[in-house]
Design goal:
about 45% helix, alpha/beta, 2 domains
Length: about 280
């Protein structure tokens, strides 16, 4: 068993809140930090959303175990308080390099010397952020797929300066919280999962914005032809709209810019963020 018991999660959006809850579910003490007081105040609603999903998908889930998990989570908007006793900090802030680097600079000012730093970035490399910290040898990536309690992969990826000791400690931690650790041996944008997934989702977005086919037919084609349970736009709904929007907006090609505009105007601005909000490309209830 690792010495990682106190976990701080930075950012309590869709995935950040899942990381916090999953860690607490497996016995870790969790500080859940966000800049937004509204986001922190909304955490009980997040837990209420996750409870029935755990009961549905996990054989060992019980109401008592879920209550205990919630009891191990503390929300805060004070960064120094959030990291003061952290063994591991997992960052899940927006997928914008400047925001991530600024966050890590601030975390470095308050975190104890023992603390390991991990980014959950979907596409950015650890080496692009490590020098923003005061401990690049303890900096690496720990990447989760959405709905982590069942899509339970934990991709561990360091940079050239990551000490193997801390790499293995984070891989062991991932296993302790119910993940299947995947040791990514070389820095790769998108790790293994998103190196496969992102081009697939981009192709679907391109078909949509060019008017080749609509959402339902694109998904139907994929499901029927491959036997996959979800089509690309159903996957977008699981991921949520914010990360795909940020990624599409950051690319220069016309198709990506059209897709970013579509996501912003037709979904994000209207509160249709995907499965957690009850509506995205599809409606849920």
């Amino acid at each position: 068993m690792t010495t990682i018991q106190n976990v701080t999660v930075l950012g309590v959006g869709v995935l950040g809140s899942q990381i916090a809850f999953q860690s607490a579910y497996h016995g870790k003490t969790v500080m859940a930090y966000d800049l937004s007081q509204e986001a922190v105040d909304g955490l009980p609603e997040r837990w209420d959303y996750l409870r029935p999903l755990y009961l549905r998908d996990l054989e060992d889930a019980t109401p008592e175990k879920l209550d205990a998990a919630v009891g191990r989570i503390t929300g805060t908007t004070d960064l120094a308080t959030a990291v003061a006793d952290a063994d591991l900090v997992i960052e899940a802030v927006p997928e914008v390099l400047e925001i991530k680097r600024d966050t890590w600079q601030k975390v470095s000012e308050s975190a104890p010397e023992r603390t390991i730093f991990a980014t959950n970035s979907s596409t950015l490399l650890p080496s692009a952020m490590a020098d923003a910290t005061d401990r690049p040898e303890k900096f690496l990536a720990l990447h989760f797929a959405n709905e982590i309690w069942r899509n339970n992969i934990g991709e561990v990826m360091g940079h050239e300066g990551t000490d193997q000791r801390w790499f293995e400690a984070v891989a062991d931690f991932a296993e302790e919280i119910g993940m299947v650790p995947v040791r990514v041996r070389k820095e790769q944008p998108g790790y293994v999962l998103n190196s496969l997934l992102v081009p697939f989702l981009n192709a679907a977005a391109d078909l949509l914005v060019r008017g080749v086919a609509d959402v339902e037919d694109i998904d139907l084609t994929w499901r029927t032809s491959t036997g996959a349970p979800l089509g690309p736009f159903q996957i977008y709904d699981v991921i949520g709209m914010t990360t795909p929007y940020n990624l599409a907006k950051s690319r220069d090609d016309e198709s990506s810019q059209k897709f970013a505009k579509l996501l912003k105007e037709e979904y994000i601005d209207k509160g249709k963020l995907g499965v957690p909000t009850g509506e995205g490309f599809y409606r849920y209830g």
